[in-house]
Amino acid sequence: MLPANLIEPGSFAAGKLRLQGKIALKDLDERVWSHDYLADSAAELSYTLQGGCDRWQRLFLELSIEGRLSLVCQRCLQPMPFELAERSRIVLFADEESLDEAMLSDEELEGMVSEKELDVRTLLEDQILMALPFSPRHDDCESDALDKINQDKPNPFAVLAGLKSGS
After folding, report:
1. Inside any domain, residue 152
2. CA 4/CA 2 separation, integer angstroms
């Protein structure tokens, strides 16, 4: 019997099994909860892992993760809410060669080589990290410090115009 966070991906998908639950960020690996963009690691996320078989008779795992995270805005460095709603279908392949061939013919395909056991927690961690924005920012930062910095900067084009008119 495998521990609760380990599954056999092939039989899980073939049996169309379902696993769902909630997990706190602080219970995940340090690479997730210590990420530079996270303002708070107290968030709890809901997840569902569903096995299945697609129309080409390929086994897959469909993972959805949802929750509200607090990220650090990279413009004003203040916390900002981020709604995580990630859904991905990971097609299972017998070997690296078939995976590579399928990925070449379908750029949108997400796939992996099916192993004897898969740690669901690691799968969750990887999907969370891939779902984080490259550079999280508020649409409109309301920061007095940021406004002051921007006010104190001279407009580079005004400086150039002054040089041009002085000649």
Report:
1. no
2. 6
Burial 58-95 (b: 16+ CB within 10 A, else e): bbbbbbbbebebbbbbbebeeebebebebebbbbbbee
Number of domains present in the structure of the chain: 1
Backbone angles phi, psi at 141, to 5 degrees: -80, 125
**92 and 114 Cβ atoms separated by less than 8 Å:** yes
Query: Which stretch, 92-96, 104-108, 136-140, has highest mean pLDDT?
Result: 92-96
Pairing outcome for strands 110-113 and 79-93:
parallel
What does the pLDDT average to over 8-21?
95
- 118 within some domain: yes
* Phi, psi angles (nearest 5°) of residue 51: -90, 160
CA dist., res. 51 & res. 104, Å (int): 24
Q: pLDDT by residue (tens digit) across 23-49?
A: 998 888 888 888 888 888 889 999 999
